[in-house]
Design goal:
The protein has 7 helices and no strands. The protein has 111 residues and is an all-alpha fold. The longest helix is centred in the last third of the chain and has 19 residues.
Length: 111
Amino acid sequence: MNNSKVIIGRTIKRFRQKKGVTQLFLAEKVGVSEKQISKIETGIHYPKFENFVKILEALDITLKDFADDIQQDKTISQSKKNFMKITNKLSDSELDILTTIAKQIEKLKKQ
C-alpha cells in the first residue's frame, strides 16, 4: 500500500535510522509512547500535527528536508509526487476546497 500514512511513516523511520536513534528515544523526545511511534512508522496512524513538529525537531530536520526526501522516494508514483508539488503551492483556502473534493471522491468510491 502506498497511502500517505505509509509514506509519512516510512519517511520518519528513514530519518530516525539515519540519525541512529531508537523509537524509544524519539518517543521520549516527542512525549508519546514507543508503541505510538511504531504505529506512525508503520503507517497505522498519522502523527498529530504538534507531534509531527516535535518529531522533525527531535530528528533535527526541516519540513523541506522531509518533503525533499519524499520526492526522492522511488516507491512513490510520479503522479503522487506531482500532486504533492501542486498542493504545496496552494493556499489554506484552496487546500480546504481540495480536501472537500477529495472527501467527496472517497465517499463515491465507497458506494
